[in-house]
Amino acid sequence: MNVRPNTSRPTAARRVRLTILVALIGLVAPVTAAPANASESDEPTDGELAELSEAIEETDVEGIAWHTDKESKEVVVTADSTVSLYEQNRVRWAAREDLDALSIERVDGAFETLALYPGSAIYGRGVRCSMGFNVRANTRYYFLTAGHCSKSVPYWHAKSSRGKLIGKAAITRYPTHDYSLVRYDSGWRSRPGGYRWGKPAVGLPVTRDGSTTGTHSGRITAVGVTVRYVGGTTVKGLVQTDICGEPGDSGGPLYRGSKAYGLTSGGAGDCPGKGITFYQPVGKILKAHGVRIY
Predict the structure, then answer these.
(1) Residue 209 pairs with which residues in a beta bridge?
(2) Per-residue b or e along 90-124, where b marks 16 or more CB atoms closer than 10 Å to that residue's CB
(3) Phi-psi region of 248 (alpha: psi -120 to 50; beta: other; left: phi over 0)
(4) Does pLDDT of 71 surpass 50?
(5) Is 73 in contact with 246 (CB distance < 8 Å)?
(6) Is the distance from CB of 66 to CB of 76 less than 8 angstroms?
(7) Closest by alpha carbon to 233, among 65, 109, 21, 84?
(8) Is 211 helix (H, G, I), strand (E, B) or coil?
(9) What is the pLDDT of residue 40?
(10) 112-294: which CATH topology?
């Protein structure tokens, strides 16, 4: 049984409080092109890029996402509007030995996990999130949602936190990862499928569904992304897209046709406009827990 989304939208004042993304505003510190006579040996090695990524993580700056772009030989940092100039300079200082390999971009809004209190779609003790994909292990059936949704909410219900029980969280991984496997209650018989696992890749057109904003499409812009959300929580190995997202969309599916790519983790945006959102890859969940999507 699909849980119908709550179509009510947050008030304008609430959207402002949630510091929702409006648009990209360009580069803060564009990387200077290498001189024409630069040799290939001047490019940073994979090891040096990995060290640079680790140095950025050690800064503990919140509101940033970063990944290694192997084509440009750069570590690309995306900073939300909560990141001050001082904090940007902390990131640059961490990269001081490989500054030419660092690119910093800015976006409006704040990187936050997209759970809404209270909400719709699936409910658990005052929390609303979104259902993702259905999976199974032999005769045991589960649905996937975001780990930050189930971190403190084990039981999920339909229509309200006192509605019919859908299931109980059996496995939750958050932070570092962001997913939860909720085992269906024996009384819940509707478990629709129709998906198979797909490997995310940069440039792929994708669609996501969420209980707040419905269906929106865009493209994958990066993989292997590390995000430190406002509040200090860090999640690794995420997929990044240019799709908008709003609170309550967490846990919803990222897909293309019948291929399942990920679960909404967080981001910022003001739908139906553009935004930036991050997703827990589905393939890692299947491999880690021996379940299969159907």
Answers:
(1) 215
(2) bbbebbeebebbbbbbbbbbbbbbbbbeebbbbbb
(3) left
(4) yes
(5) no
(6) yes
(7) 65
(8) coil
(9) 52
(10) Thrombin, subunit H (2.40.10)
Q: In terms of pLDDT, which residue wins out, 25 or 156?
A: 156
* pLDDT of res. 270: 87
DSSP letters, 29-92, are: EPPPPPPTT--GGGSPPHHHHHHHHHHHHTT--SSEEEEEETTTTEEEEEE-TT--HHHHHHHH
Structure tokens at 96: 């001081």
pLDDT of res. 260:
97
Could you tell me how many helices (H) and strands (E) the chain has, helices first? 5, 20
Mean pLDDT of 126-146: 95
Q: Confidence class of residue 43 from pLDDT cuts 50, 70 and 90?
A: confident
User: In whole angstroms, what is the distance from residue 81 CA to residue 130 CA?
Assistant: 26
* Architecture of the structural domain at 24-107: 2-Layer Sandwich (3.30)
Per-domain residue ranges of the chain: 24-107, 112-294
Percent of the chain whose predicted confidence (pLDDT) is above 70: 84
Ranking 28-32, 71-75, 138-142 by mean pLDDT, the lowest is: 28-32
Q: Burial code of 161-180, b = ≥16 C-beta within 10 A, e = fewer?
A: beeeebbebebbbbbebbbb
Q: At which residue do the structure tokens 């993989």 appear? A: 223
Tell me, what's the pLDDT at 116?
60
CA 219 to chain centroid, in Å, comes to 14
**Alpha-carbon span 37 to 7, nearest angstrom:** 58
Question: 2-33 b/e with 16+ CB inside 10 Å = b?
Answer: ebebbeeebeeeeeeebbbbbeeeeeebeeee
**Which positions are catalytic?**
148, 178, 250
